[in-house]
Design a protein that fits this description.
Blueprint (H helix, E strand, L loop, with lengths): L8 H11 L7 H5 L7 H13 L14 H13 L3 E5 L7 H7 L4 E6 L2 H12 L5 E5 L12 E7 L8 H11 E10 L14 H10 L4 E7 L2 E7 L2
Parallel strand pairs: 1-2, 1-4, 2-3, 4-5
Antiparallel strand pairs: 5-7, 6-7
Helix pairs in contact: 1-3, 1-6
């Protein structure tokens, strides 16, 4: 018996409804409010996507990365009113975030236009609290203190001008910033920085945050900065 692949149901359904033309035979699957779709109806949408060879693998509910689990746990203790996620990429953090906090207003930033387009497709498909913008972390197109929480996982080590990036993140954050970075050297040529706890703390304190706490998961360091 073939094991059924499990997806993030609302997210994969939203993406499919935006990407596929409405099938007259299954018109209700495309017109019905997303939140009202049954599990069986979402499975029908997935089957339609597979028949038309729409790539939906990014929405598979696989084992969450330890750093993602840790950050979701932090958020459950803080429960922000809105959140900016920088470097959302393929959704390794974004999809579990939206699944865990279905009413949270989330804005995403990524430098790659096709990543932004995928996230915008999910928004158009019915995840109305989601927005996505193509932008550089060193030049964020938002006003000061626009977001109660800013998250940036596995991005800072790629950014040449880390001070400028942290300045922008702290500028648009109202209360909290969560970062994750590698905690040890690796062979990824795109990782141009390796941060020690004291150096990352100093960089954040330079931007005016009041305190910084740290936690670790295998291979990664997480920082929670408080502005208030």
């Amino acid at each position: 018996m073939t094991r059924q692949v499990e997806y993030f149901p609302q997210l994969v359904a939203a993406y499919i409804r935006d990407k596929l033309p409405a099938d007259q035979q299954y018109a209700s699957l495309f017109s019905k409010p997303l939140a009202e779709l049954t599990e069986a109806e979402i499975q029908q949408l997935i089957q339609l996507a597979q028949q038309q060879e729409l790539r939906i693998h990014r929405f598979k509910r696989s084992m969450e990365l330890p750093r993602v689990q840790k950050v979701l746990g932090m958020l459950k203790g803080l429960y922000p009113s809105n959140l900016l996620d920088i470097g959302s990429g393929r959704g390794a953090f974004l999809w579990p975030l939206l699944d865990s906090f279905p009413t949270l207003a989330v804005t995403c930033v990524d430098m790659l236009d096709y990543r932004v387009a995928d996230i915008q497709a999910v928004q158009r498909g019915g995840i109305e609290q989601l927005q996505a913008v193509q932008a550089d972390v060193t030049r964020l197109p938002f006003a000061e203190q626009s977001f109660e929480m800013v998250t940036m996982l596995e991005v800072l080590e790629h950014v040449p001008d880390t001070r400028r990036a942290l300045s922008e993140i702290c500028r648009v954050a109202r209360q909290f910033v969560i970062l994750s970075v590698p905690s040890k050297e690796d062979d990824n040529p795109e990782h141009i920085h390796l941060f020690a706890q004291h150096s990352l703390r100093d960089l954040l304190l330079e931007q005016g945050v009041r305190r910084v706490s740290f936690d670790y998961v295998p291979g990664h360091m997480l920082a929670l900065a408080h502005k208030g």
